[in-house]
Each structure stands twice: as structure tokens, then as C-alpha cells.
Design goal:
About 45% of the residues lie in helices and about 15% in strands. The protein is of the alpha/beta class and about 600 residues long. It folds into four domains: about 200 residues, Rossmann fold (3-Layer(aba) Sandwich); about 150 residues, Rossmann fold (3-Layer(aba) Sandwich); about 60 residues, no CATH class; about 90 residues, 2-Layer Sandwich (Alpha-Beta Plaits), CATH 3.30.70. The protein is elongated, with a radius of gyration of 31 Å. Bound molecules: adenosine monophosphate (AMP).
């Protein structure tokens, strides 16, 4: 790897970028900088935002500017005002040690008068949106006859936004003896046409592969019924307590609606779209950049100029019609060497689009199963506990209040206090998920295959049927329990239940959960005791059954391995089918009669 000095970057610029923390050139910079420092070199670079492309063209362009000449020598075109400001900001940073060099951003949606005044003072580098630049050219304020470098940044997006004619007009108005540099995330027909018309002997530089989504991005889709899209979005967002994401919607109206719903439901969210005033958009973006907002709900166009490094997720609330937009969206995560996730919440009719996108990005999507309420709440609970642990306490400041606080709360035990604090912090999720509407996902099949998680489950069950139950670890015995995820019983609940009935804390090993029942391992020496004590166990009105997994498997075999409603029936293998039916009906009665009540009960137990 070469250093910036070896690439030919001047001392003044090196000093500025060192202060920004740029130690080594990024790949696109290594290729583009030395080439552009030469004379008469045109370039098409296929590089996404986040690859370091601004410095790749910015450093050589700035270095070639003569600061003693006040005329405009470089023009950078960008699709949106936000990107314009961002590029201008970066270029100002890079050129801070070059005396007399002025960079000016001109864009629509803002007073043209003040831009005219600034232009009259002279700016060697203009960063502009195409429409406003043409306006300024027509008024005779922007003079481009001394321009030596023209950069089209996010050229594909400018074409998507209908700037083709404006670009043609601008390029026709600058001297022929110039360098033209075209940066695009994707290579389409129109880009090729522009290249053929306006670039000469250009070199094509590809960073990563052509038209490919970022390497470090996982692509997941959740297939839901259209009516459940918002509910599914909430589940996804709730499952990642520290999520920092852009949620892309297709229209301005949908963007506003989703943002309004999220805000109503207590999320830190804001909308960003073209119907908002410029001042509102600026404020929204500033808050998001500063992490004061966790979720930005945005249209593709409005989010273009937003450069945020650390997005944990990109969420597609529906897929865009244009694959290129998907590439742009997902390329916003997985930056700066980190992994990112692009989540798409789609309904059945959009499934065809998934395949098209997969072909273009050369990567398969994972078909996801939405997280269950219990999983979500566990995650959120851990977040609350984590945050509580990390709270910094200022002993001095709090000291004068403590006696009064102790006096007021002395009737509460430590356990009561903990429960209260956690309930307060965690209440929103608890309340919502205790009564949350169910989301039935249409079978997430891909080419006849089940989604990843279901596939694994299916395989495990098949293997258990063929080879008998999984072997327990040495020294352990594998036990069956008639509670599963459908009953909101996960590892933690099983451990708590066993410990409630078996005194002296049993050491529980591996736990395997299925929808209707589960398996857990206990030390061999304690297995009989656990089975015996658990014979008394009940959840609500329902009897809990714990037995050796082998015995359960054998009796399931006697019954022909049949499962009814997916629930493994194990005891009374010798009872008549009618008796068994009666018994199961009776046992299932409380479940049917008060599903909601039972859920509340489960949630109460969740805290104990
Ligand atoms: P860009 O693709 O131009 O939007 O750049 C993405 C991010 O990478 C920006 O935050 C830049 O400040 C940063 N960046 C650009 N070049 C370097 C470099 N050589 N070393 C470290 N960071 C860089």
C-alpha cells in the first residue's frame, strides 16, 4: 500500500487530512489520485458512497487549482443539496492549509441572492446541484470558461432524478480541454452514453465489483401480509435495542405515515422527505447524525446526501422498484470495515423482486422468521439491565438527598426496588407484547426451500426421528418437557421453572427448544429427582410433564410418532384414542379459555 505522499499528494493537503485521521489511502484513492494528478485524464469510477470517493477526486482536484487565480477552475455536480453541502464541507477541510482557495456550495431550495454574492467574491471550486448551476450560468454569475475539472458525483442518481438535460447543458458550457470525472455506484446505459459523449480516452476504475452491494452487508427479508408490515417493522426494531437505522419508504406520504406511527408508539424517529422545508430537513439530519434520533424514515431521494458511518441497519419498508436504489440503500450500512444488515419487510407480491435483486447484487437473501415477543422482551430487558449497570453515579451530588430517599423507600426490599425500576424502564415493551397482535408469516419459501431457521429446525426433527433423540453430553441425561416456544417457554423460563420445583439449584446443561415441547439436560445423578419433583409442576392450570427423552421417544414411537396440533403426546400410550382425546381436550381447556390471561401470567413469571 502506498502512502499519500507516494501518491503525489501535496504537503498542505497531507497536513489537513492527517488531522482528519486519514492515515492511509483507501483503495479508490490509491487508484484515482495519481491518475488524476496527471494531465488530461478522464475517469469513470464505479464506487459507492463510503468508499472514500470524495477524497479520491477531491484531493487531486484541489491540488491542481491555482489559488492565485480567482476564476472558477473546478465544478462538482451532485444530485442533492445535502450531498452538495457535504462535499463542499469535505473539500474545505482538505484545503484548509491552501491560502486563497475558496470552495462554494450552490444549490436549489435556498436564497439565490446570497449565493450570487458569494460567487461574485470568487470561488475556484463550485459544488452545485445541476438546476441551480444552470440558473447561475444563465444569470452570468457562474462563469465556467476557466474550468479544468468537472466531477459528476453520484452520476447515476442525477440521471435517475431527471437531470440528464441539465448535465448535457452544463457539460456543453465548459471548455473542451478539461478533465471529466464521473463517479457512480452503478453502471447503466445512460451513464455509458454520457461517458461516450463527454469523456475522452477515459479509464474505468472499479472499486469492488460492478453493480454489487457492499460485501459486508447481510440481506434478510421478512415476508408478511401487507396488513402486518408496520407490526413487523416494530418487531424488528424492538429486537435490536441499540438500532441506528434508516427506514426507506417508497413515497413521501408513506414516509410521513410510518414516522408518525413510530413517534406515536414511543420510538425515537423522524421523517425526511421532500415535502418538508429545507430548514426542517436540515434539523432532522443534524439530529440523526448526532444520534439524537435513532430511526430516520426517509425517501430514497431525501436520504441521498446523508453520510452516516455507523448505521447498524438499513430497513426497506417494501422494496424499491429500481434495483439500483436497493444497491444505494443497502450500501449505506456495512461501511468502514464494519458489518451491516439490510432488512426488507415485504409482502408476497414483492417476492419476485427479491430474486431480481439477488441476481444483480450476486448475493442471496436470507428468509427471516420474525422474532417472537418473548425473545424481544428478553433482549430489551438485558438492555435495561446493562444500562442500569453502566449509570454513572455522582456520589457527592446525590448525597444530600439520600437520607430522604432511604426514608421514603425503606418499606421496599431490594428485590421490590429492582422490579419497580425494571418495570418502569421496560413497561412499554411489556405492555405492548403482552397483548401484541400475532403476525402470521406466509410460508417463507424460496424455490421450495424453507427459510434458514425453519430449515434447521426441520432437519433436527428429521434427524431425531431417524436416529432417536440427540445424545446427551457425557454425565448428563436428556429430559423432555411438554412446554415449548408456543407457550412462551424459552431457556430462561425452563431453568426458572425447574429451579422452582427442585430445591438446591439443578445444574442445567444444553437446552433444545421446539415450538411445542423442549429438551434439557441435567446431571445423570439428579435426573430421577428432577422427574419426580417436576411431577408436581403446573403452569397456570396446566400440568407440566417432564420425563426422560428416550422414554418419551419410545412412547411417541408406540403412538406411531404422531403429533397432534404439533404437541407431542407422551403418557398413557396404552390408553384408547378416545380417552386420550378427552384427556388432551381437558388439559388444553384452560389454554383455550383464557389465552390472554395466561399470557399475563407468563409475563408475571418472567420477572420472578
Ligand atoms: P466518501 O465515500 O467520500 O463518502 O467517504 C466515506 C468516509 O470515509 C468519509 O467519512 C471520509 O471522511 C472517510 N475517509 C475518506 N478517505 C479516508 C482515508 N484515507 N482514511 C480514513 N477515512 C477516510
Amino acid at each position: 500500500m502506498k502512502t499519500f505522499e507516494e501518491l503525489g499528494v501535496s504537503e498542505a493537503i497531507r497536513r489537513a487530512i492527517a488531522e482528519l485521521g486519514y492515515e492511509n489511502p483507501m483503495p479508490v484513492q490509491e487508484e484515482v489520485i495519481p491518475y488524476l494528478l496527471g494531465v488530461g485524464n478522464d475517469v469513470i469510477a464505479l464506487a459507492q458512497t463510503g468508499t472514500g470517493k470524495t477524497a479520491a477526486y477531491g484531493l487531486p482536484v484541489l491540488q491542481k487549482v491555482n489559488p492565485d487565480d480567482r476564476r472558477t477552475q473546478a465544478v462538482i455536480l451532485s444530485p442533492t443539496r445535502e450531498l452538495c453541502l457535504q462535499i463542499a464541507g469535505d473539500l474545505k477541510e482538505y484545503s484548509r492549509y491552501i491560502d486563497g482557495l475558496h470552495v462554494l456550495a450552490v444549490y436549489g431550495g435556498s436564497s439565490i441572492e446570497s449565493q450570487i454574492r458569494s460567487l461574485r467574491k470568487g470561488a475556484q471550486v463550485i459544488v452545485a446541484t445541476p438546476g441551480r448551476l444552470i440558473d447561475l450560468m444563465k444569470r452570468g454569475v457562474a462563469r465556467l470558461d476557466a474550468v479544468e475539472n468537472v466531477v459528476l458525483d453520484e452520476a447515476d442518481e442525477m440521471l435517475n432524478m431527471g437531470f440528464t438535460e441539465s448535465i448535457d447543458e452544463i457539460l456543453a458550457g465548459v471548455p473542451e480541454e478539461r478533465n471529466t470525472l464521473l463517479f457512480s455506484a452503478t453502471m447503466g446505459k445512460e451513464i455509458e452514453r454520457i461517458a461516450k459523449t463527454y469523456l475522452r480516452n477515459y479509464q474505468e476504475i472499479v472499486v469492488g465489483s460492478r453493480n454489487e452491494g457492499a460485501e459486508k452487508v447481510n440481506h434478510i427479508y421478512y415476508l408478511v401480509h401487507a396488513k402486518d408490515k408496520y407490526l413487523a417493522l416494530k418487531r424488528v426494531v424492538d429486537y435490536y435495542p441499540r438500532i441506528y437505522a434508516i427506514i426507506f419508504c417508497r413515497t413521501r406520504m408513506e414516509t410521513q405515515e410510518v414516522a408518525d406511527l413510530l413517534i406515536r408508539d414511543g420510538y425515537s424517529a423522524e421523517a425526511l422527505h421532500g415535502d418538508l422545508s429545507q430548514a426542517q430537513r436540515d434539523l432532522t439530519m443534524q439530529k440523526f447524525r448526532q444520534h439524537r434520533t435513532q430511526l430516520l424514515v426517509a425517501t430514497d431521494v431525501a436520504a441521498r446526501g446523508l453520510d452516516v458511518e455507523e448505521l447498524s441497519h438499513v430497513i426497506n419498508y417494501g422494496l424499491p422498484d429500481d434495483v439500483e436504489n436497493y444497491t444505494h440503500r443497502s450500501g449505506r450500512t456495512g461501511r468502514a470495515g464494519k458489518r451491516g444488515t439490510s432488512i426488507s419487510i415485504i409482502h408476497i407480491r414483492e417476492k419476485g423482486k427479491v430474486r431480481v435483486i439477488e441476481k444483480v447484487i450476486g448475493k442471496e437473501f436470507e428468509a427471516g422468521t420474525l422474532p417472537e415477543p418473548q425473545e424481544i422482551c428478553t433482549k430489551q430487558l438485558y438492555r435495561v439491565m446493562d444500562e442500569l449497570e453502566r449509570i454513572e453515579v455522582d456520589d457527592v451530588q446525590i448525597a444530600p438527598f439520600l437520607p430522604e430517599i432511604y426514608r421514603k423507600l425503606e418499606w421496599l426490599t431490594k428485590e421490590d426496588l429492582v422490579k419497580r425500576i425494571v418495570s418502569r424502564e421496560f413497561g412499554r415493551f411489556l405492555n405492548y407484547y403482552a397483548n401484541a397482535p400475532e403476525i402470521v408469516q406466509p410460508t417463507a419459501t424460496r424455490n421450495g426451500k424453507k427459510g434458514e431457521r425453519n430449515e434447521n429446525k426441520g432437519e433436527r426433527r428429521r434427524a431425531e426421528r431417524q436416529n432417536g433423540p440427540r445424545q446427551a453430553e457425557a454425565g448428563y441425561k436428556r429430559l423432555f418437557i411438554n412446554l415449548g416456544k408456543r407457550d412462551n417457554y424459552y431457556a430462561r423460563e425452563i431453568i426458572n421453572l425447574v429451579n422452582r420445583y427442585v430445591k438446591g439449584k439443578v445444574q442445567i446443561g444444553r437446552i433444545d427448544l421446539t415450538t411445542n415441547c423442549s429438551f434439557f439436560e441435567v446431571p445423570e445423578a439428579e435426573a430421577s429427582l428432577v422427574i419426580q419433583k417436576m411431577a408436581k409442576a403446573k403452569v397456570g392450570e396446566r400440568r407440566v410433564v417432564v420425563d426422560s427423552a428416550e422414554r418419551e421417544q419410545a412412547s411417541a414411537g408406540n403412538r406411531g410418532g404422531k403429533e397432534r396440533h404439533g404437541r407431542t403426546k407422551r403418557f398413557e400410550a396404552d390408553a384408547s384414542p378416545r380417552d386420550m382425546k378427552k384427556k388432551w381436550k381437558k388439559e388444553a381447556a384452560p389454554e383455550r379459555e383464557g389465552k390472554k390471561k395466561k399470557r399475563h401470567e407468563d409475563w408475571r413469571q418472567f420477572f420472578e
